[in-house]
Automatic annotation (TrEMBL):
Domain of life the protein comes from: Bacteria
Example GO molecular function: nucleic acid binding
Species for this entry: Phocaeicola plebeius
Name the record gives this protein: Integrase catalytic domain-containing protein
Length: 156
């Protein structure tokens, strides 16, 4: 009557039930893997690989559908990124005007005529460390440096 044979109806119904069972099994297995004593911070790629190994030939869904299953069950991890504070514009130090980027632009004629300073952060096992570099603008050699745990004045 609807243009679908009995075989097609039952085959379609069976496939959707099997996919629902697989999705539920994936969710339960991912919750099992992410328990506190196992892998609580396991990401989607790692879970995808573990599910493929665990379910073997029964794992018939692709990566995108797997991510959709995780997303619909609130199993995606939020990426919390911490970036250290490197600029403090509310300081009490004297501000100097820029003497290099003038018109006409100053270009050093030899070593030691112009040095520039910059600060960046480096991630270490203990946390972030701040690296201050003083570089000769002509030769681009590092003239001085300081590695500090904080941005205090003695570390600059």
């Amino acid at each position: 009557m609807l243009g679908i044979s009995a075989q097609g109806y039952y085959k379609h119904d069976y496939a959707s039930n099997e996919a629902d069972i697989l999705s539920a099994s994936i969710v339960l297995y991912c919750l099992y893997v992410r328990q506190k004593e196992r892998l609580p911070k396991a990401g989607c790629r790692e879970l995808y690989t573990l599910c493929r190994e665990y379910f073997r030939e029964k794992f018939t869904i692709g990566r995108d559908r797997f991510y959709n299953v995780l997303r619909s069950n609130s199993l995606m991890l939020r990426r919390t990124r911490y970036r250290p504070r490197t600029t403090d514009s509310r300081h009490g130090y004297r501000l100097y005007r820029d003497l290099v980027n003038t018109s006409p632009k100053y270009t050093p004629a030899g070593n030691g005529r112009l040095v520039v300073a910059d600060i960046t952060y480096i991630y270490t096992r203990e946390g972030f460390a701040y690296l201050s570099l003083v570089t000769d603008a002509y030769s681009r050699y590092i003239v001085g440096y300081c590695l500090s745990r904080s941005l205090d004045a003695e570390g600059r």
